[in-house]
Amino acid sequence: MRYRKLGRTNFEVSDIGFGAWGIGGKQWLGSDDAAALDSLRRSIELGVNLIDTALAYGDGHSEQLVGQVVGETGRKIYVATKVPPMNRIWPARGTIEEVYPYDYIVRSAEESLKNLRLEAIDLLQLHVWSADWVARDEWRRAFEDLKRSGKVRGVGISATEHDPDSALGIIETGLIDAVQVIYNLFDQTPELNLFPLARKRNIGILARVPLDEGALSGHFSETTTFPEGDFRAWYFRGTRRREVVDHVDALKRDLGSDASIPDTALRFCLSNAAVSTVIPGMRTRAHAESNIALSDQGPLPAETLSLLKRHAWPRNYYT
Ligand SMILES: NC(=O)c1ccc[n+]([C@@H]2O[C@H](COP(=O)([O-])OP(=O)(O)OC[C@H]3O[C@@H](n4cnc5c(N)ncnc54)[C@H](OP(=O)(O)O)[C@@H]3O)[C@@H](O)[C@H]2O)c1
Model pTM? Predict the structure, then answer.
């Protein structure tokens, strides 16, 4: 496993981190706690030392599973979690009074600490963000007070879906340590403005949704179905599965039949030096093992990266 510095923090984080949305269940049906715990433990054994969770993932269930495993390991594991929007609307909608009042941010961090059974959260992120809030006092004071109290070590935001530039203004305040952003071979837009600024200001980058919610899993087809109520049944609704298959087929034609789609997708993210850690969801030991093995392979060759540039696919399935 290779490690990278998370921006200006002194955290040396594994470049493959553990995305813990799916293990929360609820929005990802078919999750199994025993398999999730096994996958978390195996990931740590193989060198993963950053886990990204959120209070909203299964209403605290993901945090509780993470807390259980972090508590039993003797190793330092960096835990990143998130404050859900108070009005529970994704992406951000409403005024800061409706979404992130000061008291609410502090209360939410304390609830996460209980779920995680930790004394401190390594990275507390606002789960939604609006550029309109940059100058507001609520988040600044909450972050400052939580840091001062020792309950939080680093702070950041999760940038709006497919709008990495939503994070530029808050980076310029100098008050955050990291940004979590959608970055995958379909959405390469963070490379335009966010990554150069993050490098200049020494801001950590967590590359989320590296497999495009499973579209880049390599076993996605037009007849793939998800149980009713599963987030992916909504995300891949209507004609979207056909669109995905068309784009993945084009990718396969260019890469050749030997190439693994998920391996290429994850190595694409690892190839960018602005990325501190890539956080695939991996609810099973098998996925954890194959993803973690990619860390040691390093960046993709330049010719593959230039070929992948042609596969950028601007769209937003989150709306
Ligand atoms: N707004 C936000 O802040 C936000 C939003 C979304 C996600 N996130 C974070 O980003 C993380 C990653 O995103 P995600 O989990 O939504 O989606 P993702 O990582 O793009 O895709 C996860 C899917 O890919 C499958 N997969 C993983 N490794 C694979 C492999 N080697 N081969 C084939 N399939 C593989 C997973 O299988 P399994 O079914 O085995 O897990 C799962 O179905 C989340 O867990 C969360 O921590 C944050």
Answer: 0.98
